[in-house]
Amino acid sequence: MSLPILYTKNGCPWCIDALEYFNQANLKLNVIDVLKDPSKMHELQACSGQMKTPTLKNGDFIVADFDVDEFKQAMLNNPLEAKKLGF
């Protein structure tokens, strides 16, 4: 099974918060900085319909352009996905 992908941008304060939150939750991620690898920006846009970060992709499940509270709400709204991610 592949790791969830977290699209980030270096210096993005919401990305820093998300990375800290996921680190504390011991969630293993494939972190992709779309500024360091601009070719991945197309992936981000294709999967989420936008170019904002942080964006988490786990299979077909996407949480786009979120802060930690919005991510927590997405987990409450999607309990099966929360379980898959270990929340």
Protein model, in words:
Strands 2-1-3-4 form a four-stranded mixed β-sheet, covered by helices on one side. Helix 3 (68-77) packs across helix 4 (79-85). The protein has four helices and four strands; from the N terminus they run E-H-E-H-E-E-H-H. A hairpin with a 2-residue loop joins strand 3 (55-58) and strand 4 (61-63). It is 45% helix and 17% strand.
Number of distinct beta strands = 4
Separation of termini?
17 Å
Order of helical and strand elements: EHEHEEHH
Query: Strand pairing plus helix content: what structural class?
Result: alpha+beta
Estimated radius of gyration? 12 Å
Mean pLDDT: 96
Shape: globular
How many helices does DSSP assign?
4
Which features characterize this protein?
alpha+beta; single chain; globular; 4 helices; 45% helix
